[in-house]
Design brief:
CATH superfamily of the largest domain: GntR ligand-binding domain-like
Helix content: over 70%
Strand content: under 5%
Structural class: mainly alpha
Largest sheet: 2 strands, antiparallel
Radius of gyration: 18 Å
Distance between the termini: 56 Å
Oligomer: single chain
Number of strands: 2
Low-confidence stretches: 1-7
Mean pLDDT: 88
């Protein structure tokens, strides 16, 4: 780490609980059937109830949870919701990638390369869960290089909204290969500091993600009908 770079501020308890819950949501550890109750989470994490409730309310305000009479649950997004989220991401992420690739430093590129290698390893092992974790790390590494922190935060929140469907799509070997190709392309465009290629690879990745989501949804509906 650069000695002149200020250390990251220490997270307070609410922020730590928020980060913990968001990580569990992104990994698929929290399902649509789970109820998140503040006093149960507080006991599990050995913290007071108030910061847990504040973290749950923050996730609700961000559109990730819904309040019920017996705690909080993951928000269920309709296909129309998902389509609108992909539409917004298509507007934001390519431009963020173009800006980020021009700002990429050696430390950021090293993180991207490490995550890309982990993605390759998980893909070769046909491990969709580990691939999703590595792919999340890759996305986080390049989005964090975006010089506009408000844009980065918005992109992270939008992608979290569709995180629950990502594992299902990444079980598809064909889509995982397309995702891996996009990862290689994005990394190379950052190494080359080529904003046009960065835009195009991110656009292509989003198109493939959208198509894979709807293909997976159709398969699920067919199984339910059968």
């Amino acid at each position: 780490m650069n000695k002149n770079q200020p250390a990251a501020p220490k997270l307070n308890i609410r922020q730590q609980v928020y980060k913990h819950l968001r990580s569990r949501m992104r990994s698929g550890d929290i399902s649509y059937d789970d109820r998140l109750v503040d006093h149960e989470i507080a006991a599990e994490l050995q913290v007071s109830r108030m910061p847990v409730r504040e973290a749950l309310l923050q996730l609700t305000n961000e559109g990730l949870l819904e309040g019920t009479s017996r705690g909080f649950m993951l928000r269920r997004f309709t296909p129309a919701d998902i389509a609108q989220i992909f539409e917004i991401r298509m507007l934001l992420e390519p431009e963020a990638a173009a800006a980020a690739c021009l700002q990429a430093n050696l430390e950021g590129l090293a993180l991207m390369n490490k995550a890309a290698n982990a993605s390759e390893k998980a893909h070769a092992a046909a491990d969709p869960m580990q691939y999703m974790i590595a792919n999340d790390a890759f996305r986080e590494s390049w989005i964090s290089l975006c010089p506009n922190p408000h844009l980065s935060t918005m992109i992270f929140r939008l992608s979290d909204h569709v995180e629950a469907v990502r594992l299902a799509t990444l079980r598809d070997t064909r889509y995982r290969e397309l995702s891996m190709q996009a990862t290689r392309g994005i990394l190379q465009s950052f190494l080359d500091k080529d904003p046009e290629q960065a835009r195009e690879h991110v656009r292509t990745n989003l198109r493939h993600a959208s198509m894979s989501y709807y293909a997976t949804l159709d398969e699920m509906l067919e199984r339910q009908a059968g």
